[in-house]
Amino acid sequence: MAETASQGQGATLFSPYKMGKFNLSHRVVLAPMTRCRALNRIPQPALAEYYAQRSTPGGFLISEGTMVSPTAQGFPHVPGIYTEEQVEAWKQVVDAVHAKGSIIFCQLWHVGRASHQIYQPGGASPISSTSKPISGRWRILLPDGSYGAYPEPRALNAYEIPEVVEHYCQAAINAIRAGFDGIEIHGAHGYLIDQFLKDGINDRTDEYGGSVANRCKFLIQVVQAVAKAIGAEHVAVRISPAIDHLDAMDSDPLSLGLGVVDRLNKLQKDLGSKLTYLHVTQPRYTAYGQTESGRPGSEEEEAHLMKTLRKAYQGTFMCSGGFTRELGMEAVAQGDADLVSYGRLFISNPDLVIRFKTNASLNKYNRKTFYTQHPVIGYTDYPFLSNPLSRL
Ligand SMILES: Cc1cc2nc3c(=O)[nH]c(=O)nc-3n(C[C@H](O)[C@H](O)[C@H](O)COP(=O)(O)O)c2cc1C
């Protein structure tokens, strides 16, 4: 919760915030977003331009989901951080962001069963907590731009899990070597870690399945290992207990969310250091591309879930999902969040922070170019405010 006057009562999106060791000048965060412009899994110069456009002095950016290993891919042309070439390429992106005075974390991602043989080394089956495929309600974007069915995954054996944890760990070390200020572990939106967390997916009978404690085990092992490798103050976690994207349903999202929070609190105590933040996506976010993917819950239920997790978590709390300028202002003013991450509005408004500050009008985003590969169109060609005075 709040630590200083500027962090609590009376705060706005434009109040400074001390996020662990990082001094932020405002609370409008770039949400992690897959944009499919990293040709052959390597960050390109276009990424440096895109992230630099969205940087502000004392601002905070989270990178797109970045593959921790060759089996982690589930979209075309997403970047990895497991080879030297990728690390070198990321350095250019991070340097461009730092030159503009922003702080940037790398989001570490493994899609688990949300993949396809076409993305897997040797055409193998994707790995998961389960051997149940994602239902026909969802389709996977293939490299040629068409959509296909998700295939049957292979459930990981318990003895294979430490190796996957090690991949997160090495990726985190690589991210720091590339110059990132920290990493965010993607435990949300139906991807690998969420496939362990949710009881609608995880059907294991070993120590990684069943109780909330068992389902949290993989996430906590990843957090523990990564925190040991790069320091807890450089590690953040993202979860989405109430979002059923890619069939990631849980019968009791609140208990699951609190289960994760309790374990993170305990881990922080054991480590004697806080994580950088906890990032929670709320169901108001109706997914990109589809019109509906949020759990059909009432606004009150959603608000209750977010407030409860916020109160329970002992550290910086970031929320995401369907926030406008007004909703973000409200969340910060009421103490419901320390930071707010913005996705779609940041795609189409590279200068979103200044636009929010001056209450200027916003460019509309074009969904059709969210996941295309052109290095400029729909990526770095959204206009800035034309009046330079309003950029002050
Ligand atoms: C094109 C696109 C790609 C996204 N990719 C990711 C991702 O890689 N990792 C992630 O955690 N969330 C991802 N998200 C979710 C966003 O981080 C964010 O939570 C979501 O867009 C809701 O915020 P908004 O309503 O401000 O857009 C993506 C969203 C969009 C629109």
UniProtKB/TrEMBL annotation:
Report if keyword Hydrolase is assigned. Answer: no
The GO biological-process annotations, alphabetized, read as: jasmonic acid biosynthetic process; oxylipin biosynthetic process
Signal sequence segment: none
Note the superkingdom of the native organism: Eukaryota
Is Flavoprotein one of the keywords UniProt gives this record?
A: yes
Tell me which cofactor or cofactors this protein depends on: FMN
Its GO CC terms are:
peroxisome
Under the heading CDD domains, the entry gives: OYE_like_FMN
Q: Record's Gene3D superfamilies?
A: Aldolase class I (3.20.20.70)
One annotated GO molecular function is: 12-oxophytodienoate reductase activity
- List keywords of the entry alphabetically: Flavoprotein, FMN, NADP, Oxidoreductase
The record places domain NADH:flavin oxidoreductase/NADH oxidase N-terminal at: 13-362
Record-linked Pfam families: Oxidored_FMN (PF00724)
UniProt lists the family membership as follows:
Belongs to the NADH:flavin oxidoreductase/NADH oxidase family.
PANTHER family registered for this protein in UniProt: 12-OXOPHYTODIENOATE REDUCTASE 3, NADH OXIDOREDUCTASE-RELATED
Q: What is this protein called?
A: 12-oxophytodienoate reductase
The source organism is Quillaja saponaria (Soap bark tree)
